[in-house]
Amino acid sequence: MKRLVFFLPLAIAAIIGGFAIWGLSGDRDPSRIPSVLISQPVPAFDLPPVAGIDTPGLSQADLKGAGEIVLVNAFASWCGPCRAEHPILTRMAEGQGIKVVGLNYKDKPADAAAWLDELGNPYVRIGSDETGRAGIEWGLSGVPETFIVGADGTILYREAGPVVGDGLKRLQRALDAAKSAE
Amino acid sequence: MKRLLLLFCILCAPAFAVEPDEILRDPALEERARQISAQVRCVVCQNEPIDSSNAGVARDLRLLIRERLVAGDTDQQVYEYLVARYGDFVLFKPPFKPSTYALWIAPFLILFVGAGGVVYALSRRTRRATTTLSAEEEARIAQLLKDEPR
């Protein structure tokens, strides 16, 4: 018994070392903050359409009774990474037949319309959030962010940042899980 | 020279992110808004309070806090509003609840265990020091001292 006490410092060092390894490991990104909205219903918001295009606006009601999985993508014409993920969202909408809706965050309608005109419009609905107030309801920290909303209007997943590379892998995995859970 | 000094003074002034158009007319409400925004983390530049952050979202949140205060919310309600959207993460001082027990209690626990260890070690040392010699040992020492050649 007394001998065991001598191993105590070693055990403590091992615990601290374990934490250090965990803290430095490549998979962990301390700046990634989990969204509190996961498994919560879609927040209350009601956004008008982007002026100058004929895609309808977006509100809470459109997502609550959708009856299918919807991707909600927050984007802006001034956002570079949004441009990078745009073809992937288009492919998901057209190739995989996923319903994608847009939240046009703090953007001028004319700029957004020109941007969609240039790159194409994969969105079934787009809400124009010029003040960024709906963005706060969604807990956005910036754009792009993509949410998976279940058929019953529950938020299932959030990907902060563009859905390219690892981000796309994570989103696809969450999307597959959501589909199989339906 | 004086002008240069003045310029330095201006340059050295702390950078305030709160813009004049955000400030409320009611100084009491403004003071509360400043106190709240000093406690709220900016979600973009994560180690800065929104009070001193220049990020767009930080400005929006500052305006939102002021709006809620003008509408008659208590400080607690404002915090709850923010936490409902951004999580406990936005608070620089995390709340005391089951998921944060380890965070709040661990330092005191470690201190307590450490202090206990120190007390234990010290008590052992003094006990050893005060152990008196047995009669036999005393006799032997006396014998040795007597035998010592002068």
Q: Can you characterise this structure?
A:
Chain A: InterPro entries: Periplasmic_diS_OxRdtase_DsbE, Redoxin, Thioredoxin-like_sf, Thioredoxin_domain, Thioredoxin_ResA/DsbE_sf. Chain A: Belongs to the thioredoxin family. DsbE subfamily. The complex is a heterodimer of chains A (182) and B (150). Helix content of chain A is 41%, strand content 18%. With 182 residues, chain A is of the alpha/beta class. Chain A has a single domain (35-181), classed as Glutaredoxin, CATH 3.40.30.10. Chain A has a five-stranded mixed β-sheet. In chain A, strand 6 and strand 7 (155-160) form a beta hairpin. The radius of gyration of chain A is 21 Å and the shape is elongated. Chain B is an all-alpha fold and 150 residues long. Chain B folds into two domains: 14-95, Cytochrome C biogenesis protein (Helicase, Ruva Protein, domain 3), CATH 1.10.8; 99-147. Helices cover 63% and strands 0% of the residues of chain B. Chain B has six helices and no strands. The radius of gyration of chain B is 32 Å and the shape is elongated. The chains are: A alpha/beta (182), B mainly alpha (150). Chain A binds chain B through residues 31, 33-37, 43, 106, 131-133, 135-142, and chain B through 43-44, 46, 56-57, 60-61, 64, 83-87, 89.
